[in-house]
Write a structure and sequence with these properties.
The chain is an alpha/beta fold. Helix content is about 40%, strand content about 20%. The radius of gyration is 13 Å and the shape is globular.
């Protein structure tokens, strides 16, 4: 079964390169470049996996994470971030609802292992 993935990240080049890599591995992938667009896609389409940056324009990744856990309980969320201050969030309670965390830069094989 093909897994449906949504990538929400404001770095459009990163987003599209990652989407291309996942499509080569037979994932169905949509992308969003800000929190509002990501939220809209989550409300109107079903995804198996959300790859989510936390620092987003319009609506934060933490807000999206809360929405997913309320509205789409079966969707897995992997936080992808390169921001050092987010380590405090991981060590605290803010990201306990995420199913995984990857720090940028990460290897695609590492991500694929997590997704399978």
């Amino acid at each position: 079964m093909i897994k449906r993935v949504l990538i929400v990240d404001d770095d459009e080049i990163f987003c599209e390169e990652l989407a291309c890599c996942l499509r080569r591995e037979d994932f169905s992938v949509d992308t969003a470049y800000d929190g509002l667009e990501g939220r809209s896609l989550i409300y109107f389409k079903d995804y198996d996996i959300l790859l989510l940056d936390l620092k987003l324009p319009e609506l934060s990744g933490l807000d999206i994470l809360k929405i997913v856990k309320l509205k789409r309980k079966n969707m897995k969320v992997v936080v992808i971030s390169g921001e050092e201050y987010l380590k405090d969030l991981i060590e605290g309670d803010a990201l306990k609802q995420a199913d995984g965390v990857l720090w940028k830069p990460f290897d695609v094989p590492q991500l694929l292992e997590m997704l399978h």
